[in-house]
Amino acid sequence: MTEVVPQPPTLRSRRREEVLGAIRAAAGVELEERGAAALSLRAVARRVGLAPSALYRYFPGRDDLLTDLVVAAFDAQADAVEAAAGRHRDPLAAVRAALLEYRAWAVANPARFGLLYGAPVPGYAAPPTTIRPGARVGDLVVGLVEQLHAQHRLDAESLRRRASRLDGGTASELAALARRRGYTLPVEAIALGVDGFVRVHGVTVMEVFGQLRPLTSRPAPYVAQTVDAVLAELVGPAADPGEGR
Predict the structure, then answer these.
(1) Among 75, 65, 110, 82, which Cα is nearest to 204's?
(2) How far apart are alpha carbons 157 and 143 in whole angstroms?
(3) pTM score, two decimals?
(4) Are 5 and 19 in contact (CB under 8 A)?
């Protein structure tokens, strides 16, 4: 079989990637300074030094640019979370690292986090192409919980208690989620994992949007305690939070 030698990028393709990079960078600045709702192709074009008509060759409309930014933000956060989890062989330590990095990335990138989880942008509906990148962090966390379940480390009392409180409608929705995403956990274990992620996401949203300030001036330790409480719910209240470090 003849080996196919990849061809180097052409001058035209390199130029296109350079312009795309400049557009994305300019859009990121606009996002930070003006917010997602005020993002406009004309403003981005001015920053890049392009005519609006030239910018339309790369992004036909504002929604196309927003989608590009959404996908890039989801992937950037997921990359950071996966890297943090990947530094630990033990799944409990990996869950802790993943949840802490989820918060750390959000605090370091408030504009991009706000694009993903802030107020909806009027007139914009995220297309299906955002689903895969948007599900990466959740899939990672559930995958780590699956490892804990396979090692018989999930707390039996927590699972029993969660199953007793799980209404039929929520159980059906979680079962449907498991089928769509390929999760292999029992529904009550999925619920425990989802509960923990929702708690960490909620406190992260409060911190990024300034709603945690009236409660604490030290958000990092507070979030760490929240994460440790999530771990204790997963593997039992007697677990040493240091296990997850």
Answers:
(1) 110
(2) 21
(3) 0.89
(4) no
